[in-house]
Design goal:
CATH architecture: 2-Layer Sandwich
Helix content: 25-40%
Order of helices and strands: EHEHE
Shape: elongated
Radius of gyration: 16 Å
Largest sheet: 3 strands, antiparallel
Strand order of the largest sheet: 2-1-3
Distance between the termini: 5 Å
Oligomer: single chain
CATH topology: Mth169, Chain: A
CATH superfamily: Phosphoribosylformylglycinamidine synthase subunit PurS
Number of strands: 3
Length: 81
């Protein structure tokens, strides 16, 4: 089973890298870009387990290692059963 986990700053947390990218896009003429938020992307392959076990494991990994729950949020999906 393969899962995709996307980690981003919470909406209330300032994202200076995202702002720098937005400013660079504006400089290049892409003035219709209103905001940019950057994040991290993980694709993890798990041994054969059922979706309930996968949910538990993915949430534990994200909370303990992949994301800082104080300033980041994450979502995940199964991309290959």
């Amino acid at each position: 089973m393969k899962v995709r986990i996307i980690v981003r700053f919470k909406d209330t947390v300032l994202d200076p890298q995202g702002q720098a990218v937005r400013n660079a896009l504006h400089t290049l003429g892409y003035t219709s870009v209103k905001d940019v938020r950057q994040g991290k992307f993980f694709e993890i392959e798990l041994n054969k387990i059922d979706p309930g076990q996968a949910e538990k494991i993915v949430q534990e990994m994200a909370d303990k290692v992949l994301a800082n729950p104080i300033i980041e949020k994450y979502n995940w999906e199964i991309i290959e059963a």
